[in-house]
Amino acid sequence: MENKAPNRLMSMATMKCPNCHKGSMYKNKSILPLNEFMVMPEHCEVCGLKFEIETGFWFGTGYVSYALSVGTIFVLAVIFALTYGFTWRNNSIFIFIGVMISALVLLQPWIMRFSRVLYIYVFVKYKSSAFK
Ligand SMILES: [Zn+2]
């Protein structure tokens, strides 16, 4: 038997159940097919944790995905400023807006999935029995 708690960050990155760190939180490992990228099993296949802890539990993930989107924009702005640079003489701000919008649209499925993972990890600790 393994007594050591699994690496929390690794389990979050691989989108595992916050209670057992073994069961997958999403039906599909990738975002494809796109019409099913948010489909989650009702309960964890390993420990039986109910993922939607209460009705409307996922409502709060809107704030998490907003924060992730703002963080993405900030990182993109730093990368853009270091590689291309912002000046008033050319249209670099408009190019950046185009890059930012494209990146946010393309990254949205991962942002939405990961915001649910971050949100449930706040409430459910490893091997807790509070939400069984
Ligand atoms: Zn589990």
Can you give a write-up of this model?
The chain is mainly alpha-helical and 132 residues long. It has one domain. It is built from three helices and no strands. Helix 2 runs antiparallel to helix 3. Zinc ion is lined by residues 17, 19-20, 23, 44, 46-47, 49. Residues 17, 19-20, 23, 44, 46-47, 49 line the site of zinc ion.
Radius of gyration: 18 Å
Series of secondary-structure elements, N-terminal to C-terminal: HHH
Strand tally, please? 0
Mean of residue pLDDT values: 91
Give the DSSP E fraction (strand runs of 2 or more residues). Answer: under 5%
Tell me the domain tally.
Answer: 1
Helix residue percentage: 40-55%
Low-confidence stretches: none
Oligomeric state of the chains in view: single chain
Query: Structural class, please?
Result: mainly alpha
Task: Count helical runs.
Answer: 3
* First-to-last CA distance: 22 Å
Based on Cα principal axes, name the global outline: elongated
- Ligand roster: zinc ion
- Outline the biggest β-sheet: none
Topology (SSEs and partners):
Elements: H1 8-13, H2 61-83, H3 92-123
Helix pairs in contact: 2-3
The structure holds zinc ion.
Zinc ion binds next to loops.
